[in-house]
Every structure is written in C-alpha cells, then in structure tokens.
Specification:
25% strand; globular; binds adenosine-5'-triphosphate
C-alpha cells in the first residue's frame, strides 16, 4: 500500500486534449505524461501555443483531457463531477497567477481570509502565512500599496492558505524585475523543499530555472525533459 510520502502529488498518464474546430483543431496536449512528487519544483518552458496553459488546466482539474489519467495526490480528478472538482481544487490545489490576481479592495490579510473562507477552512492563519513569505509588515496593505514582487508574495501566501499538496504557478515573474523574479522563485522552491508542496511552474523566464529541480519543455503539445546547460 502506498503511503502519503510515496503518493505522487501529480500524476498525468497519456493525456490528450484537442481544442478548436475544423481546420483550427490542435493537439493542445499530445500524449503527455508527468509525475511530480511532494517536495519537487518543476518548471515547464516552451514557445507560445505549445500547450503549457493546457497542461496547468488539466493538472488543476479546470479542464478534462479527452483521454488519459490525471491524479492529484492519488485522486483521479478526471472522474470528478464539476462541483466535486471545484471542491477538490479549493482544498487540495493552489494556483498562483501572473500578477498575483489580487482583489483591489482587500488588504493582504483579507485576501487570505477570503480564500480560506471560500474553502471552508477555519484553521488557516493568515498572519503566520504572510510572515512565512516575508510580508508580515504589509499585512494591512492593499494591492495598490504593494510592489509587483510583494503582490506576487501575497498571491503565493493566498495559494498556500489551504495547505495544498500541489501548487500550479503560471508565469509568476512576468511582471517582475530580475531581483524580484529570483526572490519569488526562490520562495516557491523553499516552500517545495521545506513544506513538501509540489510546484509546477510555467515560465518564459530562463533566468530563474536554476532554482528548479527539473525543467520540462513543451513543443506542439508534447512534453519532454530538458537538460539544463551548465
Ligand atoms: N479555447 C481554445 N480553442 C481553440 N484552441 C485553443 C483554445 N485554447 C488554446 N488553444 C490552442 O491550443 C494550443 C495550446 O494553447 P496553450 O494556451 O495551452 O499554449 P501555451 O503554451 O500556454 O501558450 P502561451 O505561452 O502563449 O500562453 C495553441 O495552439 C492554442 O492556440
């Protein structure tokens, strides 16, 4: 029997996803397989339109592949009905978006409180989480009072509020300068390595790949391991 430590955080086997109609039909995912274990941070790179967002959508139970298996922490998310998939996402998967995707009117603390409430989590500790991403001193600030890097840190804290097994991260450094980009990806890597969260990060930013355990490359819907140049 498998134990929690040996259950992959994410396991995709032979996923195929076609999008569009007629001549515009494309293989967004073409026989994609991927295993990510707890504590790993994996980067996915590749040209625009190669299928990276589709991979995150399928991994995050936002889209069902036409065929193949997607297990998150042992649960086959392709078998879940829509409402069950939503519930599963709220409790097991964290999402981090390009610019933090924060709500303009809410302070950092309230961003986390709202996320916890939506997931029915009464034990979340927003203050401790903001402290863990170096944002305790900005707890009462709204997004427009924060720098891009600080917004991204709050976005990461919010994604962690429900203690997810899997963190799916889409272009977290797109709006950041070089120093903030390194800080944010270093932070993600630390969460993976210290808290055992599995992180899958889509990025165009080759500068930050050094912080990742593995780099995968998508080309025309296919996923391959990429060997980093020394
Ligand atoms: N809703 C849709 N209908 C039709 N085709 C789509 C749809 N969404 C994406 N596609 C196509 O599927 C392929 C994969 O798109 P996807 O967004 O996953 O790529 P990507 O690597 O994330 O691109 P980018 O880096 O530009 O965000 C592309 O050819 C895209 O044009």
């Amino acid at each position: 029997m498998s134990t929690p430590s040996t259950t992959p955080a994410l396991e995709i086997v032979g996923a195929r996803l076609e999008l569009g109609d007629g001549d515009a039909r494309v293989h967004a995912l073409d026989d994609v397989s991927l295993r990510v274990d707890p504590g790993e941070i994996v980067a996915v790179v590749g040209p625009s339109g190669s299928g990276k967002s589709s991979l995150l959508a399928v991994a995050g139970a936002l889209a069902k592949p036409d065929s193949g298996i997607v297990r998150v922490h042992g649960t086959d998310v392709t078998a879940l009905a829509k409402s069950a998939a939503t519930r599963f996402r709220l409790t097991t998967i964290g999402f981090v978006f390009q610019s933090g995707n924060l709500i303009a009117a809410l302070t950092a603390t309230d961003q986390l409180r709202l996320a916890a409430r939506l997931a029915g989590n009464r034990t979340a500790d927003p203050a401790a989480l903001l402290g863990s991403v170096g944002m305790a001193h900005r707890a009462d600030h709204r997004p427009d009072q924060l720098s891009g890097g600080e917004r991204q840190r709050v976005g990461i804290a919010r994604a962690l509020v429900n203690d997810p097994s899997l963190l799916l991260v889409d272009e977290p450094t797109a709006a950041l300068d070089r120093a903030s980009s390194h800080d944010v990806v270093r932070l993600l890597a630390a969460r993976a390595h210290e808290a055992g969260v599995a992180v899958v990060m889509v990025t165009h930013d080759h500068d930050v790949l050094e912080h990742c355990d593995r780099v995968l490359e998508m080309t025309d819907g296919r996923l391959g391991e990429r060997v980093l140049a020394a």
